[in-house]
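Researcher: First entry.
Model:
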Amino acid sequence: LDLVINHSSAEHPWFKASQDPESNYRSWYIWSTTDNTEGYDLKASAFDNPSWHKNSSGYYAGIFGETLPDFNYEEPAVREEMKQIAKFWLEKGVAGFRLDAAKHIYDASKTKNGTDSTEKAVEWWKEFSDYCKTINPDAFLLGEIWDTSELRYEYMSALDSSFVFDIGTDLFGQSIKDGKNTDNGIATTMKEEFDNVASKTPDAIDSLFLSNHDTTRINTTMENRRGQMKLTAALNLTMQGLPFVYYGEEIGMLGDTLGTDTNVRTPFLWGNEDSMTTSWFSDYSNDNTQDANAQSEDPYSLLSHYRKLIQLRAKSPALYKGVFEPIANGNEAISSYEMQSDEQTMLIIHNLSTEEQTAFLNTKGRIVFTTNEVKVWRTASSIVIPPLTTVIIER
């Protein structure tokens, strides 16, 4: 469940009550007087927008805009209320939470001068996590921490996982558009990431994704869209960690290249006659995108490709709990690696280019997946892979 506890709406009764300086809710939000005796930087900004907003009751912090005032986590009643919200959902059977804006609970632009905002935020998430585990020891807490890997690792000491930003477009997508993977770059980069997590936060794991609700859909940036999207899907779904799929990726939906909120969060294309279809927004960018119902009938569609990979991952211990290891292949257009568990080893090979390529490596084993179910030619020490194709071999 997506849990948004950094801020409320400005229309929320709590915030309306907080505008009275004598209200018990005054301390639930971060207020500063006109003369700013509290020690805040009222000129601070976040995301190139002001973090502080003025009304008749003073200045209040709202790093996501004036309509979204931020909670004050220095107030014990706020902490307790947020834990009770988590308790409510966990007792309903929710398995865990995606923690929205996790690093902004104590954002530097809204805390008092001299505050270590990261230390304070991690301290809160540890308190929150410990509480959730008392309700459900298996509750899973995933933080949205859009920052450097080093900062993510600090938060992962308190959480079970965090999203790895920028790999979808900057690593996977760019490598595929370039059609090359110098020095097995995708695999070596991801190996470094996975090893860092294991050494710094051994109980946490990475959560991978291609694009999300704050970015343009990765498919928008592709040229050979159907083939390249199948490749990005295969990369995301065959690595160590937890893969996430932003709705619409699995059918190849596009988004606005500027990444504006509305244009990257358009309604899912179920099919014109489907009762699930909504029409609150005219999404002209997807006029040529085949809907989900139509793709379900095509065994070679992008949606069918996703389903096959997800089914394979779910039944393959090497894929859903294995350890990642790059495998050299002698071809810069090829990305190759193994996923290894105690029960199983899988060799994954991706041809990133739009031309047939040969990978030079040990191909012993049973082929359990190929894109579009193509046939591949191989010897004991090489394999010929069609353009934009993934091959998975069970050792």
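Researcher: Second entry.
Model:
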Amino acid sequence: MALLLQHPDRGGALLTVTHDLEVARALGGDVWVMQQAHVVENGDAEQVLARPWHAYTRRLVAAEPSSWRYAWQEASHPGPEAPALIEARDLRYAYGSNRLFDSLSLDVGAGERLALTGPSGSGKTTLGNVLLRLQRPDGGSVRHADSLGPGRVQKLYQDPAASFPRHVTTGIAIADVLRRHRLDASRLDELVETMHLPPGVLSRRPGQVSGGELQRLALIRALLLRPLLLFADEPTSRLDLVTQQETVHCLMQQVDEAGCALILVTHDQVLAAAVAARTVAVGPASARRGVAT
């Protein structure tokens, strides 16, 4: 944002497209709010975002995570006596001379909601992949509970489109999962309805489905295996605020109902506070501190 603001300061014009209201507030100037290819409200950014009059603008502002009020946010969280699904001790990882974390230890308990936060490039995804044993650390150990057998750990990727084959329908891709793990196909229809997905969405290819719908399909694919641990890597970073709210609400309802542990990777501190009971800050400080808290 600082780099963008240098341009109008030097006499240039700046046109920014964003779904991040904090960015719009920080850039200031005029803001145009669009819905279904129409401008529904426009004016001074501070005024429009503080005192919106159009219903859609009010819905956008209300969809910011700081405004969420859901039953799953008030649900009781497992205490320290909950059995550990993951025990990580003295983890070290570096890319060349760049130390991401060093002597870092943490546990993830059954049913826990944990957020890994930090700026881009700080090592959030790398730490998550190490905890899931998808990457080997440079040092230290990661132990999984016996209950985390095949299929009981699932990952939601930041770009859901990249996790689906492009040339077949989403229904065919999910049917492959059903066959491979010999799962009950009737639960797929139940989850599609629960996630408020439109009829016929399973007959479309990934490129014909919106980002929010595709992320919910990726969530359905993961939930079909009834995981004990779900790792969500920036699952809403490409979504507008309304779609993010709807997607996270669907995600957390299912996590809460299943008693599933969740590790959320996000650089959004407000989203982390709305979703998780515990936050681990990843970055240079964690490399020095050693123990994540």
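Model: Note on the second entry: The radius of gyration is 21 Å.
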